[in-house]
Amino acid sequence: MIKKILIANRGEIAVRIIRTCKEMGIKTVAVYSDADRISPHVILADEAYHIGKPPSNESYLDVNKILSVIKESGADAVHPGYGFLSENVEFAKTIQKRGIIWIGAPTEAINTMGDKVSARQVAKNNSVSLIPGTIEPIQNPKDVFPIAESIGYPILVKAVGGGGGKGMRIVYSESDLTQSIERASSEAGKAFSDSRVYIEKYLEDPHHIEIQILSDTHGNHISLGERECSIQRRFQKIIEETPSPFIDDLLRKELSESAIKLAKACNYLGAGTVEFLVDKYKKWYFLEMNTRLQVEHPITEIVNGIDLVREQINIADGKPISFTQNDVISQGHAIECRIYAEDGLNNFQPSIGKIVDYYPPSGPGVRMDEGFIKGQEITPFYDPMLAKLVVWSNNRKEAISKMNRVLSEMKIVGPITSIPICREIINHSSFNSGNYCTHTLEAILPDLVENISKEITPSVASLILKKQYQNQGKIISEELSSPWLTSGRKDGLE
Amino acid sequence: MILRLTQQNHSIDVELISSSPFIIKIKEKEYQPDIIKISDNLYSLILNNQSWFLSYNEKDNRRFISDSKYESIIHIQNELEIVLSKFGFASTEDDKIGEIHASIPGLITKLFVKAGDKIKEGHPLCILEAMKMENEINAPMDGVIKSIHVIEGNSVEKGNIIMEIE
């Protein structure tokens, strides 16, 4: 029986894991860097241990520090979340040698499927179709020219150990190839300690569809259906939904069967995701397998009425999955918007600073997985995702209306967030009609910027004028009066 | 007090008629909104019995206001700036040519040049890493590196000067 879990992560995913642990009566241990003293994961956990400076490699990636917290806290299991140490085989092996339960993928499966080259080999051996490209990592950029030529531009340079858009470049012509390989390789080296890259054909108009699977130690492998994740910027997902408005039952079945075939082939355990690219003729290709819990897992949880983290913990504890494949009946429609600290309408520039105000979203069918709190400083050290906003409704149309309502209600003041761009995407005809692919966001971005209110309402004008007048008033009052009067005057004005 | 509010290519002038009661004028029409501050940056505004829930955010001289219908991103000019722009003077000074500024907050992880280097347009100058993405900054022009204001490992704020080219 697992009694105490150390969550080797931060932000929204740490909070999400802590919540399930508490519901299961399991004690939680948080770790935090200097930058995260008032992060919600620290506030909500039963125990919290400081592990170092803000840069990840001096805290959340510092294996030795985390090992000593495991010892000190007496945790009997570790949940790595996603990112950070979630696919670090050495770390997983080390803790398991010490008798600690690893609530993550088996190390052999991480090795096989986390490495994109060997993952492609597994897919090939199991007759799961692959995108044309190099199976082997690139040794010398010069050797790639003839291969790129034969596949045909545009091509994609991708990190062998990559994910999340890091270590990835699209190359449209031969002249950019060498430089792109160098940049991708350097980025990958820093992000994943593995600078190997490979190339593959860049498909036009593809859908990014992924299948959530669960596997346990009793030989059960279950598919929980698909997630449509084609709304992306720089290869990072921003809005996901399930079911996909694009795929049909036949395709869903094929993808699920292939996903389970791959899970079996790598002796998978726990929660995993198999990603596919599906072109407009519904021809599909295996993309990669993510051997961890994924960011967008809540939409699958909501339509299936399950808790993936609870299943992960039980599977790690040797228990079987709490339901069978026949029990999996997806109901209604779920949409997730990722709330990033970045200015979507200004080239997705990251935006840092203090969260000075926050009005949370709420109401029926709304789930907010947030990793921030009012007063917290958003720093450049970590991923810019602040929260995941998920809604559920009976059908897609209602879910879109709900998301629109919720996005207009919630307010985050401080860093510029992706709330405005999510509102614009949700209301755009291509999203509304369900007719979108991974290139859509880039294509409609000028529309979205243009659509952002063309009118300035009297209410907006009033507020700006009032604020501006007050700012001037404050300066005068500070010159003329005591702090008490200033404060009284300020209150009077507001 | 008059302000010019601009969003995209759309501008309006708004004039303060009275501060107490708070009355403003837009396009010859007067409005008397009831504005209540709810918390630091959230406001409730009632205007002609229409209720608005607004958040107010200032960033890089832009005002971000969100209400139940719109997201507004507004630039403002005060009376002096309106007068100056009428005579063709820009109110803000453009970056000097040759100054390389950080377009986003981040970390300088690599410098490819040193002071005195002769460079061609497009030559890589440095890598600005933000949120784990590497952004290569290239020379906007031919020239000589006059000065470098950062070292590898420095973090920079948006707008900070990184180097100068002559």
Structure in words:
- The complex is a heterodimer of chains A (494) and B (166).
- By secondary structure, chain A is an alpha+beta fold.
- Chain A has 4 domains: 4-103, 3-Layer(aba) Sandwich (Rossmann fold), CATH 3.40.50; 132-201, ATP-grasp fold, A domain (Dna Ligase, domain 1, 2-Layer Sandwich), CATH 3.30.1490; 207-451, 2-Layer Sandwich (D-amino Acid Aminotransferase, Chain A, domain 1), CATH 3.30.470; 458-493.
- Helices cover 38% and strands 25% of the residues of chain A.
- Chain A contains 17 helices and 22 strands.
- Chain A has helices spanning 11-23, 40-44, 63-73, 89-97, 107-114, 116-125, 141-151, 177-192, 249-265, 297-304, 308-316, 396-409, 419-427, 429-432, 440-451, 458-480, 483-493; strands spanning 4-7, 27-33, 47-52, 77-79, 101-102, 155-163, 166-171, 197-201, 207-215, 221-233, 236-242, 270-278, 284-290, 333-340, 342-343, 349-350, 353-354, 357-359, 366-370, 377-378, 385-393, 411-413.
- In chain A, the strands form 6 sheets. Chain A has an 8-stranded antiparallel β-sheet with strand order 13-12-9-10-11-14-21-19, sandwiched between helices. A 5-stranded parallel β-sheet of chain A has the order 3-2-1-4-5.
- In chain A, helix 4 runs antiparallel to helix 5 and helix 12 packs antiparallel against helix 13.
- The longest helix of chain A is centred in the last third of the chain and has 23 residues, at 458-480.
- With 166 residues, chain B is mostly beta strands.
- Chain B folds into 2 domains: 2-86, Glycoprotein, Type 4 Pilin (2-Layer Sandwich); 99-165, OB fold (Dihydrolipoamide Acetyltransferase, E2P).
- Chain B is built from 1 helix and 17 strands.
- Chain B has one helix at residues 79-86, and strands at residues 2-7, 10-19, 22-26, 29-31, 34-39, 42-47, 50-59, 62-66, 71-77, 99-101, 106-111, 118-119, 124-130, 133-138, 143-148, 155-156, 161-165.
- The interface between A and B is large, with 54 and 61 residues.
